[in-house]
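dude i think i finally got it to work??
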Amino acid sequence: MGSVTSLSSTGKSNTLRFNLTTRPFLARLGAMILIVFISLCLTAVGCRPGMQAGSAGKSQASTDTAGQTATLHRDELFEIAISNLNRLYQFEGTEMALQVADRLDQWIKTQPPLTDWTPDPLLQKLPPDLAQLKAVKELGELRFTRDDGIFLQTAVWLRDIAGWARGEQPDELSRAMELFDWVVINVQLDSQERMIRLPSGQLLIHTPWETLLLGHGTVFDRAWVYLLLCRQEGLDAAVVAVNRAAAGAPPLWEVFAVGVLINGELYLFEPALGVPIPAKDGLKVEKGKGLVIRPATLRELAADDSLLRRLDADPRNPYRVKAEDLREVMLYVEGSPPYLSRRMEMVQKMLAGTESLVITTHPSEIAERLRQTRHVKDVELWVVPYEAEQQRETFGQQIGQHILREVMPYLAPVGEVVPLWRGRVLHFRGDLVGEESAAYYYQLARPPERLLASGNLAPDQEAILNRAKINASYWLGILALYQGNRKSAEDYFIKRTALSEPDSPWESGVLYALGRLNEKLGDYSRAITAYRSEMQLPNRYGNLVRAKWLEELTGAKPLEIKESPQK
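look at this
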């Protein structure tokens, strides 16, 4: 893979043209914003409208509609929908994803309902308020909504990411490790200041679409994306919770890890720390990679507290979970509504080969396999996706406005393209460098300062493009990290992201990525220094643990930071 910085010398890069006059920019941005805003605010009025006018009042397609046959079949509408679904990367924004849902909505009206479909039994254990959500009550309906367009777009992104981020090793554990590492590098943990609190007092839960596009979120957001990446790879996974209730009190379950079921054992990954919980011999340093962590199983951790004590940052900051906490755990399976719907199962049955895409799941079947694992008390549906749905039914418009503010830089046009959006989608596909790559479009999203300061831009336009430029610089740094390109990575991370404005929103991601870069290059002292350089970041605990392991394994010490002499 070539250097990211080499793009500046390619013939194509030298032909970039920036058209930043106000009127074309605002016209194009306004059109894209309208489409995305409608998508984000659908539930503001408490409904999930179908794609066709007049379809909202139909409970499901009649079984004796003209044209239906005894079995599902593909027709021209379905072929067009799936063809466009598999080339969404060629389009910007969400408009084509909504058109895919439109075509599928027309197709499904000509299909017979699956007669053997029933709601998954685990739904019966949902809390009553969540069981009454429209998305739950309408699981059996044969119509597609705009929400489904966003869901399908997300599924394609997840499939594309898994296709290359899983690495080249065929065994399931290696794939699970690589996918987790992708999430940790590409989803920065949010600080308390960046988290949004809703009028209800709840923290906003990002959907996977939002987490992937924006590249940041909470621990739950990280865990949700990881669970779905595992699903695309055919790996059974669930969040793991320990009981925090006092003796004799009703259980109070606290989620702390994600478990992946492989050969009858549950391997644990810690999304808050950003590391697998290492097995006894699971820590080593490899040339060209840095720290490599093989996860322990639930059974191993429940039997040996010394394994968990390696997650203590220091004697004053012990890890919150002990071996005795793991002797009986609760597991929660991801089963967000679209994955449990009849309509998605009907589409799933029609996909094969290069079209393959996981858009349905059966949590009760996964639960049966997970219950065979030692120390598992029970398995239920994870309520976080349902709480996210509830938030959008209740506060849809407010949430849509907030998310749109963050999405706007990704929709900002430069000339004839929307470069930051296209860069993100190509990043998901693993098309990282070269012509028509993520790096090319990230570079295009970075107009020269002379153009931004030319006076031809309205203040709002200039602010959006500046934010797009900072975001693009951060993602270029991530690409340089993959390549081990110190010069390029440090330039983008330090000069063009961290130092580009006060209180950079990417500060924690930058320091973590610099640590990972120096691990990859074998400069462990610099890596340790990066991990220990800021104690107020949301990922500080995981950074401290990683720095401790590097010291123990390599003998390296942090660099001495010399203070500038006082004048």
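The two ends are 47 Å apart (CA to CA).
im so relieved honestly
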